[in-house]
Structures are given as structure tokens and as C-alpha cells.
Amino acid sequence: MSSNQKNIVIALDGPAASGKSTIAQIIAQKLNFLYIDSGAMYRAFTWKMMQNNINIDNNTELNELINNTHLVLKKGFSIKVYVDSLDITTKIRDPEIDRNISIVAKNDLIRKALVKLQRSYQKNYNIVMDGRDIGTIVFPKANYKFYLEASIEVRAMRRFQELIAKGKEITLEKIIKEMQNRDHADFTRTIGPLKCAKDAFRIDTSELSIEQVASLVLNCIKNKGNKS
Ligand code: C5P
């Protein structure tokens, strides 16, 4: 891979807590690429819709919200998410957002607006983007595609530990149930469903450490070279 080439896309897709965002951030840092968390965008919209009590079935209200929402992902020590200049980085990780996001993520108008925003980053940067439809819909011609997965038990335990560390009161059973619901919604929606792209490198992270997954991904990138 040439160090001064621009517009390289590394796509990482997979279900919740499969390790995508952790790995994407490591890869981005190692390669000096820009990391874009597309899930954070859906979370930010969900947050704004909940704040404004928007009726998702009212296209006029929805279009107005889309046109009047200024969404910014800022790179710092970690990624910060701003909506209309307000820092909502912590708020978008609330379990209440997880409970409401599926309805927002299956909306055609919102997906179109966010896919456009996601594609815009490629114009000026080399990017690592994670999500559900990055290798299939957003960047079907991405230079490198990865699909990360893990058993529901492992993924739920990861999320449980994250939330407990943040002082949230939640049970593992509840997380399993909610994750299964979100997986189902992600896999079965008509627009932009979660799918492993045919040409993606598939990794089951259940039994692997973060370092092992990161080195698998980096080796794959190194061995494949730049196909663009
Ligand atoms: O990646 P994360 O778990 O933060 O994503 C939250 C939700 O946002 C997903 O469950 C999915 O419904 C939605 N999403 C999506 N398409 C993406 C990224 C996230 O529909 N590219």
C-alpha cells in the first residue's frame, strides 16, 4: 500500500459487540487512516429523534430533522460525537438508544442521508469505517473488507462488562434478549441489512484476543496489497 495514496477504504461489518469498533480504531491508528463509526451516526439520529419526539412515519417532519441536523464525528483521544454542536458521545451509548435504534435504522430517508454522509469521507481521506452495510452498500468497491462475528454469549458478555464498568444496572439476560432483537432487526430489514459481503474476509472473534484479531486484519491487508 502506497503511504501517500488517498481514498483507500477498509470496511468492517458485523453484529453488535463483534469487536468491529475496537479493531477498526487499532487499524486506523496503525495505518494513520481516519476512523469512522457509522453506528454512531445512527445512534446520534436516534438520540435527536427521541429528544424531539419525531414521528418517524411523518416524512415532512423527518426531512426537516435530517436537513437541520449537523452531525460531526471528531477525532481526539477517542471519537467524539456532536449533534448541533452538543457533545452526545456518552448519551448515544445509553441502552435506551439501543432499544429504539432499529426503527430508525430501517428508515429509508435516514439511511439515504447517512450513506451519503459516510461516502463523503472517502473524498479526502483514507478511511476505516465500521457498521452493518459498509462492504455491501456504502462502499461495495472497498479496497479491503472484513466481517467480524462472535457467539451471542461472548458478545453479550462484552457489552455487559462495558455497561457494568460504566455503573449501569442491567442483567446479562436482558442484554442477551435485547441483542438478539437488534441482531434480528439488523439481519432482516429490507434496506441495508447486515450481510457479509461475498469478497469479505470473515473472522470469528469469540475465542480470539483483540491483539490476535488486529494482527489477522493487518496481515490480511499487508498480504493482499492494494487492489485499487
Ligand atoms: O455499531 P453499533 O452497534 O453502534 O450500531 C448501532 C445500530 O445502528 C445497529 O444495531 C444498526 O441498527 C445501526 N447501524 C446500521 N448501519 C450501519 C451502522 C449501524 O443500520 N452501517
Briefly, what is this?
With 228 residues, this protein is an alpha/beta fold.
Characterise the protein shown here.
The protein is an alpha/beta fold. It has one domain: P-loop containing nucleotide triphosphate hydrolases (Rossmann fold, 3-Layer(aba) Sandwich), CATH 3.40.50.300. The chain contains 9 helices and 8 strands. It has helices at residues 20-31, 38-51, 59-67, 95-105, 108-120, 134-138, 152-165, 172-188, 210-224; strands at 9-13, 34-37, 71-75, 79-83, 86-87, 127-131, 144-149, 201-204. It has a 5-stranded parallel beta sheet with strand order 2-6-1-7-8. The protein has a 3-stranded antiparallel beta sheet with strand order 3-4-5, covered by helices on one side. Strand 4 (79-83) and strand 5 form a beta hairpin. The longest helix has 17 residues, at 172-188. The mean pLDDT is 93. The structure holds cytidine-5'-monophosphate. Cytidine-5'-monophosphate binds next to helix 2, helix 4 and helix 8.
- The second-level CATH architecture is 3-Layer(aba) Sandwich
Q: What fold name stands as the CATH topology?
A: Rossmann fold
Radius of gyration of CA atoms, rounded to a whole number:
17 Å
Spatial gap, N to C terminus: 10 Å
Q: Identify the CATH class.
A: Alpha Beta
Fraction of helical residues: 40-55%
Give the amount of beta strand, in percent.
15-25%
Strand order, biggest sheet?
Answer: 2-6-1-7-8
N-to-C SSE series? EHEHHEEEHHEHEHHEH
Number of helices: 9
User: How confident is the prediction overall: mean pLDDT?
Assistant: 93
The number of strands is 8
Number of domains: 1
Largest sheet: 5 strands, parallel
Q: Which homologous superfamily in CATH is the superfamily?
A: P-loop containing nucleotide triphosphate hydrolases
Low-confidence stretches: none
Bound molecules: cytidine-5'-monophosphate
- Look at the helices and sheets and give the structural class: alpha/beta
